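Example for tutorial group B:
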């Protein structure tokens, strides 16, 4: 489990991991202790690619926080980015399934 501004541990060093761990503490904390979704997605995606867990749960908060804050243009912008995160995840999973013959996949976005 990895949340808030915790560093991602347990992955091979290199790639994006060190940069993402560093960036998450250098970006503005606009949601009072909630990590930005771009960092969450990329940390989770790196974990997925290296560890291939049976279950991966990613929680994206920006759309909810922007909507409750009345920041509609930011909400739409965040929804656009979240949609792209899900596209990247879906494309990678589809490729992985074709090459490993995995028989089951469950993807749920709430």
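The residue assignment follows.
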């Amino acid at each position: 489990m990895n949340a808030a501004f915790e560093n991602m541990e347990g992955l091979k060093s290199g790639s994006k991991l060190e940069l993402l761990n560093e960036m998450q503490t250098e970006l503005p904390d606009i949601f009072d202790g909630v990590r930005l979704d771009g960092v969450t997605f990329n940390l989770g995606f790196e974990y997925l690619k290296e560890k291939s867990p049976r279950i991966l749960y990613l929680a994206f908060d920006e759309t909810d926080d922007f909507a409750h804050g009345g920041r509609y243009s930011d909400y739409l912008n965040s929804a656009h980015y979240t949609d792209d995160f899900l596209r990247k995840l879906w494309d990678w999973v589809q490729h992985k399934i074709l090459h490993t013959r995995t028989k089951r996949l469950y993807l749920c976005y709430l």
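The chain has a mean pLDDT of 83. Compare this with the pattern of hydrophobic and polar residues in the output above.
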